[in-house]
Amino acid sequence: MGEPSRIDLPQGTLDLLILRILALGPEHGWAISERIQQVSRNVLQVPQGSLYPALHRLERRGWIKATWSTTENNRRAKYYDLSAAGRKQLEVEESGWRKLAAAVAHVLEST
């Protein structure tokens, strides 16, 4: 059994994953990236060049909020947390993703 294949995330998927991770509680950017990689069993790796623009975009939309705090390693870091609007958006995004995944699976199975 080798290294799992890595795949590119479809547009908008990273936003959904970030919102889902933050639904569990506030995290700093590096921890969000690590958690996505860990939960996906190393299939999904989020480069910083994608992560931080996504975090800023979500913050501008009002779906997450950021505050400065100190990490476990005694370093200052920006911690992101889901806002009430972000929690609602997560429900919308999850529902849409599940419908899309089911439709794609149905087409793949029936052709």
Overall shape: it is: globular
CATH class: Mainly Alpha
- The overall average pLDDT, rounded, is 92
Query: Helical percent range?
Result: 40-55%
* Widest sheet: strand ordering: 1-3-2
The tally of helices reads 4
Regions with little confidence, pLDDT below 50 for 5+ residues: none
Sheet-strand content, in percent, reads 5-15%
**CATH T-level fold name:** Arc Repressor Mutant, subunit A
Using DSSP, what is the number of strands? 3
Description:
The protein is an alpha+beta fold and 111 residues long. It has one domain (13-110): Orthogonal Bundle (Arc Repressor Mutant, subunit A). Helices cover 55% and strands 14% of the residues. The protein has helices at residues 13-22, 29-39, 48-60, 84-110; strands at residues 27-28, 64-70, 76-82. The protein starts with 12 loop residues before the first helix and ends with a helix. The model has no long low-confidence stretch (mean pLDDT 92).
Provide a short characterization of the protein structure:
The protein is an alpha+beta fold and 111 residues long.
